Amino acid sequence: MNKTNVKKMKRLLLPLLAVLALPIYLVANWLGDETFYIVCGSSEYKVVKNGSVWFGGWQKSNAGDFGLFTLNEKDKTASLLRFKPEEGLEYHGVDVVFFNKDSIKLSQRYDMQEPLVLDGVEKYHLFYIYTINRINGEFNFWIEDTDSNNSLTNPSTDTYILNRGSCRVVEDGNLF
């Protein structure tokens, strides 16, 4: 190759590399003060009881997409459109626990018409705790008892189900 061809290839290659890097940039989302949308889903879960993992660890889940999160970088706000709301539950707004350049943690309270028996105690008010890794798109959530002291940092009940999956950016909140 002569020098002229090398220069031409560099001029074509650099913009192409920039375009290929764009999806990674969006997952990390350095969009400043804009609203952005992500769809997160669960692909695996594990049951933990008294600190021990049951049923051999992570199990495949066919839950699919969980919901559409609308997030605002400037205001540090979030909302969630659940794709499969459960009957008998009243969902409250999504609260931001923290919202930084590496990760986002959210919580959402819900009230149940019928109690959930958790460790022998009837529970009518629980939280979903969501964590989103902004670098690699990893998504985790668990259900937590509202009476626990450290529910927003780690699952604190004796028995809980931890779910994990991934998130992807969606243009303008339109899924189709």
Describe the 3D structure.
- This protein is mainly beta and 176 residues long.
- The protein is built from 1 helix and 8 strands; from the N terminus they run αββββββββ.
- Strands 3-2-1-8-7-6-5-4 form an 8-stranded antiparallel sheet, with helices on one face.
- A hairpin with a 2-residue loop joins strand 1 (35-49) and strand 2 (52-72).
- The chain is globular.
- Residues 12-31 and 149-153 have low confidence and may be disordered.
Estimate the strand proportion. over 45%
Biggest pleated-sheet summary: 8 strands, antiparallel
- The figure for the number of domains is 1
DSSP helical segment count: 1
For this entry, what is the oligomeric state of its chains? single chain
Helix/strand/pairing class, anyone? mainly beta
Task: Please give the radius of gyration in angstroms.
Answer: 20 Å
| Anisotropy-based shape | globular
**Which residues form runs of ≥5 with pLDDT under 50?**
12-31, 149-153
Distance between the termini: 46 Å
State mean pLDDT (0 to 100 scale).
75
Helix content: 10-25%
Give helix and strand order, one letter per element, not per position. Answer: HEEEEEEEE
Number of strands: 8
Q: What is the spatial order of strands in the main beta sheet? A: 3-2-1-8-7-6-5-4
Features:
176 residues, mainly beta, globular
SSE topology:
Layout: H1 3-28, E1 35-49, E2 52-72, E3 77-82, E4 89-99, E5 103-118, E6 121-133, E7 138-145, E8 159-170
Antiparallel strand pairs: 1-2, 1-8, 2-3, 4-5, 5-6, 6-7, 7-8
